[in-house]
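Structure tokens please, single chain.
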Amino acid sequence: MLEFRTQGFNGYAVKYSPFFDSRIAVASAANFGLVGNGRLYILGLTPKGIIAEKWFDTQDSLYDLAWSESHENQCVVATGDGSIKLFDISLDQFPVQSWQEHKREVFAVHWNLVAKDTFCSSSWDGTIKIWSPHRPDSLLTLPTHSCTYSASFSPHSPSILSSVSSDSHLRIYDLRTPSSASNHLTASIPIHTPPPPSSSPSTSRPTNPNIHNLPPSEALTHDWNKYRSTLIATAGVDRLIRVFDTRNLNPVQGPVAILPGHEYAVRKVSWSPHLSDVLLSASYDMTCRVWTDGSAVGVDGGGGQQKVGVQGGMGMSGGGGAGGGIQRGDPLAFGGGRELGRMGRHTEFVMGVDWCLFGAEGWCASVGWDERLLVWDMKAVMGQ
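Here you go.
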């Protein structure tokens, strides 16, 4: 495990460069993001550890970042004053572009992975905006009418994007559709919708009615599966990770998997770039956890009583929930998914996680309010 201290700044987001396996960017904020400056760190992984290659200070907190998919040296950040700034790390001090259209804090930015020439942002002002780095104004504004914590483009289409908001809804937009009165909105999924009852007596389904009585709660994060174009994972204040299949929308049938285990709100989820059934999460319970959604061959369909033991000597232990494993009787477990393991080295809220795209699968990075970036290997947790 490698560590870098973001002294005086609390981490909010971390992203590996899509061009270099040894470069990581961290968005951070002073005073836990409540008041004060922000700082964008550009870090290099070297044989001697993690070094700060460069950093950029901003007047307000930084809440998220995204690397450009078309320019290896450019990075866009989301700030607490409602602005979005584009930095070129080959230059010093100042951003090369700045946009100020959002009326409140910008909490998420995401680059279009297919078209590569646009990115989106979402804000507490209840809007999503689409931008081009070459244009001074936004290209399009999509209203959500709710504080929107996360927005992202689909990795499978240049014109489909999604968001999750404080009103407990997952929204999907298709920019190819007429704007009309719906503003390109093609689906609005209540995240708290219970899963459908089992159609087969042999299929494991929880019998506890608690799973059908979950109230709406703020959704803080979501991510598209990198291999299966219709799957989206969401998570938030109610501590549950849900997996939705966008084919099940007429009528809305609820999640195809529910993954309980975190003890406090889930701040970030990220599907693996290497394994179609694996995702990583970060939570206010100071842990990062790796999960399978239950779709892989050989996964126990009864809720996952298998447990992954402590491996690798990195402070990671397997199992789910406080009891060390999601058991068959857990009233919230659904869909055969389970927790594969966890990393508990952070000492404050974990705010961001990301997977490394290069090299051996399983390397990832996490940042938290403990002013630390940790780079670690998930293979030990996943038994590889």
